[in-house]
Amino acid sequence: MTFNTIKQLLWGLYLTNSFGYRLKKINDPAEIKRLRLAYSEAQLNALHISVKIENPEKLPQSGQYLIVINHRSIVDPPIVEVALKDTEIFGPWISKKELYNSFLFGLFVRNAGSILLDRAKSQMSGFFADIKKAVKRGESIFIFPEGTRNKTDKPLTTFKEGSRIIALKNRLPILPIYIKTDGNKVLKNALDDSKLEQEVIIVVGDIIDYKEKTNLETLYRQMFSLNEARNPS
């Protein structure tokens, strides 16, 4: 482990706990959004990672959506937060139980606006009730439909069925976002070289009606041309 890696881990631990503690005292959604963005920018700035939206004209400035995002790296949530910084779009992330209990991310995840997904539970009524409350507050829902990080060499793994159910139950249009650049490679490069400047590219897809009957994964793959080609980034 390099000195830079140790330094970044300690800085990341400080940021997540510092912002997590501050967020614990906040209830105002606008302030939560501001602090989440500040945290995300601090994390990415420390790693010298910038975010570019390839087709910014497709990104809505407001509204409620189920935002579906591919997932390769632990830096994906900050990347998305920064990509949406100039919009009014805000809401909780669907987060796994492991993140709630994480030493590194737990305090932040629990207080930054997240909905716990515990797949070990036989009943999911509480999970869907929490989503409905957020939607009634006028918020969007952020989800990684693959369910966990993609650790393969393929650009996408299989979607879980829950994303479509969330959209249908809450009549949420679906906003697909594709992180084109492999965040894992970017993070590794940043830890290997503390002076390296890198850019992550985000692609925004066309909004999908929640009543659309075509399989969500199929639509996502078609939209971002992921059926056969490997990600070049």
How much β-strand is present in the residues? 5-15%
Unreliable parts: 229-233
SSE pattern, N- to C-terminal? HHEEHEHHEHEHEHEH
The chain-level mean pLDDT equals: 92
Helical percent range? 40-55%
The CATH topology name reads Glycerol-3-phosphate (1)-acyltransferase
Please identify, by name, the CATH architecture: 3-Layer(aba) Sandwich
Strand order of the largest sheet: 1-7-6-2-5
Main β-sheet, in a few words? 5 strands, mixed
Structure characteristics:
globular, disordered C terminus, single chain, Glycerol-3-phosphate (1)-acyltransferase, 42% helix, 233 residues, alpha/beta, two-stranded parallel ribbon
Topology:
Elements: H1 3-24, H2 29-46, E1 49-53, E2 66-69, H3 76-83, E3 93-96, H4 97-100, H5 106-111, E4 114-117, H6 125-136, E5 141-143, H7 162-170, E6 174-179, H8 183-192, E7 198-204, H9 216-223
Parallel strand pairs: 1-7, 2-5, 2-6, 3-4
Antiparallel strand pairs: 6-7
Helix pairs in contact: 1-2, 2-3
